[in-house]
Amino acid sequence: MKTVVFFGSARKNGNTKDLLNSFLTNLEGSVEIIDAYRSEISPCIDCRYCWKKRGCSIDDKMQKIYPLIDKADNIVFATPVYFGNIPGPLKNIIDRCQVYWASTLRDDKFEKGSKKGIMFLCGGAPSFENQFTATEMVLEGLFGDLGAFTAGKVYVPNTDEVPVKENFRAKDKAGEIAKNLRR
Ligand SMILES: Cc1cc2nc3c(=O)[nH]c(=O)nc-3n(C[C@H](O)[C@H](O)[C@H](O)COP(=O)(O)O)c2cc1C
């Protein structure tokens, strides 16, 4: 089982990492972690190269990430929400996945349901309606383009008051998702 994790926090060892670690300690198989803030991935420039060819015209580290996505069984996003959405560096990576959206134009889509998508989202504010809605919409849209279905999600509000480190329920849920992937 191959898993690719996209890590979106500016803080290397904050809430998001604590939540992710609970997942990773229970995960089997190989795992690659893409740390968005430390990956220097350029934004999509809408050059439309991918409308015709299965690839991207920008020659940066994303070229090594595409094959990981192609081969992955599980695609995991672990990120805080910033202003109700995905932090910039991680959004750059998502936008570079336009090549998968364009698979409809090229007619080489991933088989539907061939990958599992997982989301771990943290928010500092106390729980409120739609705290994670925009982020969820972006990620579910991407999962659709990757032929993935959402196989698990943990959303953790109120991290300013109760850090993930002390939130055993949230950590247990993340661990359970990894265990379920073994089946
Ligand atoms: C620029 C910025 C914007 C933020 N916007 C939100 C927000 O819209 N909603 C929310 O609940 N928390 C927001 N937060 C709080 C973070 O989501 C929260 O502190 C989270 O636990 C950080 O994760 P980390 O510890 O992995 O860095 C924001 C934090 C920053 C730095």
Short note summarizing the structure:
The chain has helices at residues 15-24, 62-71, 88-95, 98-101, 103-106, 133-145, 168-181, and strands spanning 2-7, 30-35, 74-80, 115-122, 148-156.
Describe it.
The structure is a single chain. The protein has helices spanning 15-24, 62-71, 88-95, 98-101, 103-106, 133-145, 168-181, and strands at 2-7, 30-35, 74-80, 115-122, 148-156. By secondary structure, it is an alpha/beta fold. It has a single domain (2-173), classed as 3-Layer(aba) Sandwich (Rossmann fold). Strands 2-1-3-4-5 form a five-stranded parallel sheet, sandwiched between helices. Helix 1 (15-24) packs parallel to helix 7. The protein is globular and about 50 Å long. It binds flavin mononucleotide. The site of flavin mononucleotide has 18 residues, from helix 1.
Count of strand segments: 5
What is the CATH topology assignment?
Answer: Rossmann fold
Number of domains: 1
Tell me the helix content.
25-40%
Mean of residue pLDDT values:
97
Q: Provide the gyration radius in Å.
A: 16 Å
In the predicted model, the low-confidence regions spanning at least 5 consecutive residues are none
Report the sheet with the most strands, covering strand number, pairing sense and barrel closure.
5 strands, parallel
CATH domain class name: Alpha Beta
Structural class: alpha/beta
